[in-house]
Amino acid sequence: MARVAVVGAGLGALAAAARLAALGHAVTVLEQAPQVGGKLGWYARNGHGFDTGPSLVTLPQLYRDLFAATGGPLEDAVDLVRLDPAVAYRFADGTRLSVPGDAAAVPAALDAALGAGSGAQWSALMARAAAMWRVTEQPFLRSPLAGAATLARLARSGSDVATVAPWRTLRGLGTAYLRDPRLRTLLDRYATYSGSDPRRAPAVLATVPHVEQAFGSWYVRGGLRRLAQAVAQRAVEHGAVVRTGTTVEQVLVEGGRAAGVRLAGGEVLRADVVVSGADAAALYADLLPASRPTRRVRRDLARSTPSLSGFVLLLALRGRTPGIAHHTVLFPDDYDAEFDAVFGVGRHRGAPQPVADPTVYVSAPDDPATRPDDDSESWFVLVNAPRHDPAGGVDWDAPGLADRYAQQVLGVMARRGLDVRDRVRWCVVRTPADLERDTRSVGGSIYGTSSNGARAAFLRPGNASPVPGLFLVGGSAHPGGGLPLVALSAEIVAGLVGPA
């Protein structure tokens, strides 16, 4: 039996804690916030409740695997509801598209909304994405990152390399398959699932819409925070100790290996294994002492492009919106201008800034747990935003900026047909600076590093650190961000640590 200290209580860290506790290890989870969940947060006030992070579950089988490995069915712990429609899109030209939850019905819906042939174009792209998924799932997503060896696994055949097309961007893949610019815009959106720019992100991100459509989009009744709570409960049932309100200030390294953690206030918790669910950049910059073994990882992090962040409005609304989907996406006229502003490239080279005309994502779950009565709604509104960087980019703490930008976003929504300004009971604004403070993610980068560039995935920190006994889970480590991938990171780490 190993003593395991888990830094953070995000979903990846909790999943690792549950798996390791079920394997017989003595696990202690240390979370700075007063509750578990990390970015899978919850905000409640006056009967209104909001998921403040992810708003859907894809690849639920990964969580079924987690719960099966730790003692019981997922459906016994949470109430999963399949979304139909999965998402509703509104394009800049006024076109509306409702994507069915059943993948078989998607081509017909595309033809009806965008014109004959649109469904066939999308189906051809999804067939390519399914092939990409088959090639990469086991050798990359489900395996530890191992530099050249990982590349060798992926390059085991020339046809596999041609399928993945590592030299091609997501934008380039869309251009090759999709003639309708609205379809290309829809595909571009999936780069943001890893905090990336579709013009630089790899084509293999086309697997994201494939997974979403093939395996469904799911909601957890009562809010996705219940998934984090259920995973934490599973860890506790196997003997894990969860300490909230406990900040880790340093990962201790003695004799060249991880030896435990030092907490705020000076308490030292000895451990044989440390699993960090903290942002990888924060771990290597702030929690670990500089050393020769970690030099390469620090260099790779410095060379990577940080992921985008998000600017959020939590809107407590009077009344109900007829026909509003669980997820609605309002696209701008110029999507490229959004990525230029967020990443400080193109027309905004070197000067990231809030997006003037952003894509707006609205999550409006029809769930009594999120509202005080049946004449109310609780909307989580997100726009892509540059990270908090007072020294070289946007200072989201600048006086008045957050409030001005909140009004700008509400105005954008009104121009695109969702004017709720006269229905707002109250609004809470959450900026990238708030996300950084709440989760210790550097600059509020949602996914740590982006997938911008062909080598980005291989610059992402591996699950086994260069320090023996120290492992990484969560969205900033391999294989990346999002609820499915953080579950895989936990599975990989549990395999690396092994049974007691």
UniProtKB/TrEMBL annotation:
<keyword id="KW-0125">Carotenoid biosynthesis</keyword>
<feature type="domain" description="Amine oxidase">
    <location>
        <begin position="14"/>
        <end position="494"/>
    </location>
</feature>
<dbReference type="Pfam" id="PF01593">
    <property type="entry name" value="Amino_oxidase"/>
</dbReference>
<keyword id="KW-0560">Oxidoreductase</keyword>
<dbReference type="GO" id="GO:0016491">
    <property type="term" value="F:oxidoreductase activity"/>
</dbReference>
<protein>
    <submittedName>
        <fullName>Phytoene desaturase</fullName>
    </submittedName>
</protein>
<dbReference type="InterPro" id="IPR014105">
    <property type="entry name" value="Carotenoid/retinoid_OxRdtase"/>
</dbReference>
<dbReference type="InterPro" id="IPR002937">
    <property type="entry name" value="Amino_oxidase"/>
</dbReference>
<keyword id="KW-0732">Signal</keyword>
<comment type="similarity">
    <text>Belongs to the carotenoid/retinoid oxidoreductase family.</text>
</comment>
<dbReference type="GO" id="GO:0016117">
    <property type="term" value="P:carotenoid biosynthetic process"/>
</dbReference>
<feature type="signal peptide">
    <location>
        <begin position="1"/>
        <end position="21"/>
    </location>
</feature>
<comment type="pathway">
    <text>Carotenoid biosynthesis.</text>
</comment>
<dbReference type="InterPro" id="IPR036188">
    <property type="entry name" value="FAD/NAD-bd_sf"/>
</dbReference>
